[in-house]
Each structure stands twice: as C-alpha cells, then as structure tokens.
Amino acid sequence: FYHLLIHEILKRQMTLDKEDMLGRISLFAKHAFKYYLVGASGILVNLGVLFALTEFAGLWYLLSSTVAIYVSITSNFLLNKSWTFRDTVIKQRTFLMYGKFIGVSLVGMGIQLGFNYMFVEKLAVYYLLAALISIMIASLVNFVLNRRLTFGIKL
To answer: In 3-state terms, what secondary structure has residue 118?
Structure first.
C-alpha cells in the first residue's frame, strides 16, 4: 500500500514539475516575443534619431549613435515595464528599475558601439546598416540580463 502511495505522490510531483517547467518556458517565450516587438520599435527610434543627428545636425555617427541608443533605451524601458513584463514584474520603484535597465543597457551600448565602429571603420559598412546589425547583436545580451536583473524574472 505504502509503495503505491509513494509511487502516486512521486508521479504527481513529476507531473507538476513538468507542468511548471512548461509554464516557465511558455512565459519565457511570451516575454521574448514582446521584448523583441518593443525592441523593433526601439530600432526605429534608434535609427531615426541616429539618422536625424548625423544627417541634419551634422554630428559624428558614433556620437549620434550614443544619443540614439539612450533615447531608445528610455522608450524601451517604459514599454517593457508597462507591457512586456507587466504581469510578472517584481514590485520595486520605477526609478530603481530604470537605473538597473540603464546599467544593463550600458553593456549593450558598449557592444553596439564597438561593433558599429568595427563595421563602419574596418569593413566600410554604411553606418545605418552597421547600426542595425550592431543593435541585433547587443539585443541578445540585453534581453537575458534585463529579464533577470531589472525585472527579477528567473529562468
């Protein structure tokens, strides 16, 4: 009797663990999808500001890119907090979260500016195309770090 009872308890626990894991994977996929939609809007903001500052204000493309990244970081933070991670975000002050988001995004900014410089200066890639490629590379790091560190979501 006890053998059957233990077997059923273990079987039930394994089923719950499997359901929990599938739920976490599903949540991760949902967050990733929304994060990258927000990121797509951030790309438009980033490239728009970059183009305007470089072509119309006459700024050097890396200086323009730095400003454009900061503007897109801010718009992405607001959209991610209010939409992407709204259902799972840990309770903390917006200002603190924004500070964490900026901190993580500075890592992404370094990656983006480094690749941007390499593509333009070493490989002669047009600065807007270089920025787009660099954004995609940096966004992979930003998603994982922001999900965990800024919004406090495990897995």
So the answer is: helix
Nearest to 45 by CA among 87, 74, 8: 74
Tell me the whole-structure pTM to 2 decimals: 0.76
Q: Which tokens sit at 83?
A: 């939409």
Could you tell me which residues come within 8 angstroms of residue 111 by beta carbon, excluding any fewer than 6 positions away?
A: 134, 137, 138, 141
d(CA 110, CA 113): 5
Q: Is 83 helix (H, G, I), strand (E, B) or coil?
A: helix
Query: What is the rounded CA–CA span in Å between residue 123 and residue 125?
Result: 6
**DSSP letters of 5-68?**
HHHHHHHHHHHHHHHHHHHHHHHHHHHHHHHHHHHHHHHHHHHHHHHIIIIIS---HHHHHHHH
- Torsions phi, psi for 88 (to 5 deg): -130, 0
d(CA 147, CA 101): 10
pLDDT in tens, 45-86: 999 999 999 999 999 999 999 999 999 999 999 998 888 888
Residue 118, token pair as written in the block: 């390499």
- 31 alpha carbon, distance to own chain's centre: 10
